[in-house]
Amino acid sequence: MASVLSYESLVHxxxxxxxxxxxxxxxxxxxxxxxxxxxxxxxSKTTHMVxxxxxxxxxxxxxxxxxxxxxxxxxxxxxxxxxxxxSLKAVWVKGQHSTTGKDLVVGFVAxxxxxxxxxxxxxxxxxxxxxxxxFRNEDIVPTNYSGVIDAFHQIxxxxxxxxxxxxxxxxxxxxxxxxxxxxxxxxxxxxxLKKRMKLSSLDVFLIGAIAKAIAxxxxxxxxxxxxxxxxxxxxxxxxxxxxxxLRNILYLLHQRVRRFGIMGLYKGxxxxxxxxxxTAALMFLVYEKLTAATFTVMGLKSARKR
Length: 306
Known about the structure:
This protein has 306 residues and is mostly helical. It is built from 11 helices and no strands.
């Protein structure tokens, strides 16, 4: 029984990792979002205007800068998250009906494990995505990395190994994002399955989009702080608490509100919603299809059908 559960968790993890290739389609939206979060003096507010500026100033391929390391990290991150989520859920539920509360708790724990293991990848990815960018903000110090390995080497050499976990604190708070996402996704899925035997592709796409939109909007201000701390090249805080203590998070949030008003906390939300909602919807769709196909080929009954 244990080996079957472990195998099923592995199937879910592989499907979850593979499904993140869907982000390739919407990758430029994430580039626009990151610029709006980090480059405070960029005046363009709409996603398409920011993308046009990036293409005009930095070239046609600039919106895809850092694509490969980001996609690779997303696959690793999703593998860890889905494997942990489904393993914990299989052990806790043990053949019983799952509940929204259990999904939230399991999603939270899986998120914590994911953050602690994969934050160094995201710190490096943020640096690489912003390398070569034309910033409006003179407080930003440019970076010069030749690749992922060189970025790891320079960060450890110049900033210390703990710098690889910059933004860990807001990231730990942000585990509520996938937890909230999975809670709504699983809840909506259960409600629909009460009325029909099987969900259509459109059903999965829509509930995935709704779940991610809710989670993203609720947690977006923390995502802004997370991006700033991961980049780590602002001269904003004279005390320079690069690891992101609660006091530093509050400082950054206060600075944002003071400079731009409450809406400053949501700069880039339009791009983030477009990118994450569409990506998440496709991700869940591909994830469900990959999982179902794998179980069918292997002749196993999915533990998710409970």
